[in-house]
Amino acid sequence: MRRPVVAGAFYEGERAGLERQLNDCFAGLTREEDERVIGAVVPHAGYMHSCSVAASAYAKLPSADIFVILGPNHQGIGSLVAVSTDTWETPLGAVDIESAFVDALPKRIIDIDENAHRYEHAIEVQLPFLQFLFHEKFTFVPICMSLSDEETAKEVGNELADAIAKTNKKVVMLASSDFTHYEPEGIARDKDEYVIEAIKELDVSKFYNRVYARNVTACGIGPIAAVMHAAKRLGAREGELVSYATSGDSTGDRSSVVGYAAITFS
Asked: What is residue 136's predicted lDDT score, i.e. its pLDDT?
């Protein structure tokens, strides 16, 4: 069992408090499931900062049998690209891994390794949103990436697309990432708009070129690109920016912010 490591810090640590917090995250949003959506980018900061942005993407997600969640490895522990096979727990209960999907992964670059996930928050913070919306009617596949270069991202995306093509179940992919870190708000928004334009075009090479050109410090570059690549292979034509905000919107400090974006692929 993979126990939560940021419950009580990034989000409320008890069921009742977490349910209230999630209700607040979705306040003012209309649940509009879009069956065309096959992937999304969602932020992973503390809920007090980014949950309303994340919720705006989740509000559009269709129900699915399997959610594949990719996130960066902030800790640098374990295999460089790692999938977990443990059941994961949050204050809202346990979520099982879709073992058949893990078995279907070609594993040309993705290893099975629990250590890479043990202390990482980027994937964990997404699970309560899925539990809140879909209860126990889904399984998931967590993939943690320490490598974020274009070649690796495309290889991971190819593995996902190959595995999804083999399954007869509905699969939705999520890339967990925050955007520009610790820049004045005007600069952060400008940099993020620049790379989000490439994300909306599902142009992985353009995305990387723009990240490098502006030194954009998004932490989930690899997961974003992998989901972009897989989504395009699976028939997605475009990305839609659903919401954007910065930490300055919650803290009032505009001098050094982190950017958050919700983007869907269909």
From this structure: 83
Structure tokens at 187: 């600069």
Residue 91 lies in a domain: yes
pLDDT digits (tens, 9 = 90+) for 70-95: 999 999 999 999 999 999 999 999 99
- As for how many domains the chain has, the answer is 1
| DSSP reduced 3-state for 241 | strand
Q: What is the mean pLDDT of residues 203-226?
A: 98
Q: Which amino acid is at 216?
A: V
Residue 193 has, within 13 A of its CA and on its CB side, a CA count of 6
Gyration radius of the chain over CA positions: 17
The answer to whether position 168 is within a domain reads yes
Nearest 10 degrees: Cα torsion 8, 13, 16, 19: 70
Euclidean distance between CA atoms 200 and 241, whole angstroms:
7
* Half-sphere exposure of residue 56: CA atoms within 13 angstroms, side-chain side: 17
The CA–CA distances, whole Å, from 69 to 11, 124, 197 equal 18, 9, 22
